[in-house]
Structure formats: structure tokens, C-alpha cells
UniProtKB/TrEMBL annotation:
Belongs to the short-chain dehydrogenases/reductases (SDR) family. It holds the Pfam family adh_short. It comes from Neolewinella agarilytica. SMART domains: PKS_KR. This is NADP-dependent 3-hydroxy acid dehydrogenase YdfG. PANTHER family: 3-OXOACYL-(ACYL-CARRIER-PROTEIN) REDUCTASE, 3-OXOACYL-[ACYL-CARRIER-PROTEIN] REDUCTASE FABG. GO terms for biological process: monocarboxylic acid metabolic process. Transmembrane segments: none annotated. PROSITE patterns: ADH_SHORT. InterPro entries: KR_dom (IPR057326), NAD(P)-bd_dom_sf (IPR036291), Sc_DH/Rdtase_CS (IPR020904), SDR (IPR050259), SDR_fam (IPR002347). Residues 7-190 form the Ketoreductase domain.
Length: 240
């Protein structure tokens, strides 16, 4: 799948941060991007900004909630109608609630699992027909928190440990059908995650466009080779 021209990516949570950067890097490489958000206005505004940059590929903004299978099926169908196919899925949407177990609420737990884990399951189910039809590529955005546990991380760790296991099992389910599956596990990324606003002090962190470039690189790998799990971390984090 070295040539990304006229291919289409379905990217959940694509209006900012990692999702937006992935869309931009794919569009630079010639692919189209269907970006989703729970807000139609946010999705359309992000798509307009991407299209205004004059990249080779085009963007379509679609309202979709990853927690709702019907919503995601409608978004995938919109991408097929606009561009003719969905060849790649980048399951990026995520949320983080961090608190000691004594303080973590059932609502915070449920939202974390629903978005970070069940939402990816729905992303796969919604796009499976397209992925298998076009021998596509599924990439999930997990986290180093998918192998490294930490205090106040019970909900987030559970969701990301689950996502890593889910992705690897799906890889084994789909590889005989020509579908490649990888999970990217970033460490600290300079994004808006968990209410953070990127700023100059984030220069040491992985930048969103670095993850975007990694997605492009994975898609351009020879068909015979599959980096199924990719851990990525800042090369020089601050000394503690």
C-alpha cells in the first residue's frame, strides 16, 4: 500500500491533536480524510481548515460519536459516498480520567471504557466491510499506559491495556484477509488531551505531526512487513 493517492482514511477524533495531525500528514501524501467529532460544527471547521491548506488530498468532516455504532456506520457511509471507499481506519478518539480508585466515579470509569475501548470496537465493526474489501489498514492509537500502570490510572490503564490486547487479537483475525493492523503506543504528546493546552514548554514532547508521519510510514511499509505494535516516547524527556 505504498501509494496513498486517492485512498481514504477514516479518523475518529480528528478535529485537533493527534487525529488532526494524522489527517494533515495523510492529505499531504495524497490520501483523503474523513474526520469525526461529536460536534458537526467542529468537524466541518477542521475539514475546512485542512482543505484550505491546499494539500493533495481532501477532507470531510462528519459528526459521529464513537460510543454509538449506528453513528459510526453512518460516518463511514458518508466517507464512501464522498470518496468511493474507506481504505484506512485510524481509531484515535480518546478520553482520560485520572483519580485514585477511592475517588474515581462510576461515570468516569464508564466514559473511559466506552470511548477508549468499546468505541474502537465500534470503529472496527463499522468499517470492517470496507477494510476487508480493499485490503485496508487499521491503526489504533493506544498509549504507553497500555503496558505501564501508574497511580490514579485505573480507568485509563484498563482501557489502554484492553485496547492493546484487542488490537493484537484483531490483527490475528484479519491478516488472512489482507488487512494489516497496528497499534501505536505514544508516551507524552503535546496535545489538548485532558484539558491541557499545548505551549512552548511542551517542546520536549512528541509532537502530533510526529505521530502523523508515523501513520504515513506504517501505511507505506511493504505489504510483507507488519509492525504490529509500535512504542514511541520522547527521546530526551526532562530529568526528574
Amino acid at each position: 500500500m505504498n501509494d496513498l493517492q486517492n485512498k481514504t482514511a477514516y479518523i475518529t477524533g480528528g478535529t485537533k491533536g493527534i487525529g488532526y495531525a494524522v489527517a494533515e500528514e495523510l492529505m499531504k501524501a495524497g490520501a483523503n480524510a474523513v474526520i469525526t467529532s461529536r460536534s458537526q460544527q467542529a468537524a466541518e471547521e477542521a475539514a475546512e481548515k485542512l482543505n484550505a491548506a491546499g494539500h493533495a488530498g481532501k477532507a470531510l468532516g462528519v459528526e459521529a460519536d464513537v460510543r454509538n455504532l449506528d453513528s459510526q456506520q453512518a460516518a463511514v457511509s458518508a466517507g464512501v459516498e464522498a470518496f468511493g471507499s474507506v481504505d484506512f481506519v485510524i481509531a484515535n478518539a480518546g478520553v482520560g480520567h485520572f483519580a485514585p480508585i477511592q475517588e474515581l466515579t462510576p461515570e468516569q470509569w464508564q466514559e473511559t471504557i466506552d470511548i477508549n475501548l468499546t468505541g474502537v470496537f465500534y470503529s472496527v465493526k463499522a468499517s470492517l466491510e470496507q477494510l476487508t474489501k480493499h485490503e485496508g489498514y487499521l491503526i489504533t492509537i493506544a498509549s504507553l499506559a497500555g503496558t505501564n500502570f501508574f497511580p490514579k490510572g485505573s480507568a485509563y490503564n484498563a482501557s489502554k491495556f484492553g485496547l492493546v490486547g484487542f488490537t493484537q487479537a484483531v490483527m490475528m483475525d484479519l491478516r488472512e484477509q489482507g488487512v494489516k493492523v497496528s497499534t501505536i503506543m505514544p508516551g507524552s504528546v503535546a496535545t489538548f488531551f485532558n484539558g491541557h493546552t499545548p505551549n512552548p514548554a511542551d517542546d520536549w514532547k512528541i509532537q502530533p505531526e510526529d505521530i502523523g508521519q508515523m501513520v504515513v510510514d506504517l501505511l507505506k511499509m511493504p505489504a510483507r512487513t507488519l509492525p504490529s505494535k509500535v512504542e514511541v516516547r520522547p527521546s530526551r524527556p526532562p530529568s526528574k
